[in-house]
Amino acid sequence: MVVASFAGHGEPGAAAVRFLEKVRAKTLDLEPGGDTALAPQTSAQKRREIARRLERVGRDLGRDPLEVGAVNLDDDLAAVLVRKTGGFDSSQWQVVPVALVRRGEEWLAAPVPASFENSGTGYSAIVRKRLATLEDWMLREQVLDLEKLREQSAERMRRKIAESLPLATLRGFTHRLPRSRPQPPTRHAPWHRTRSFGTCENPGWLLAHRTPGKFFAG
Question: Does domain 2-155 match CATH 3.90.420.10?
Answer without folding.
Answer: no
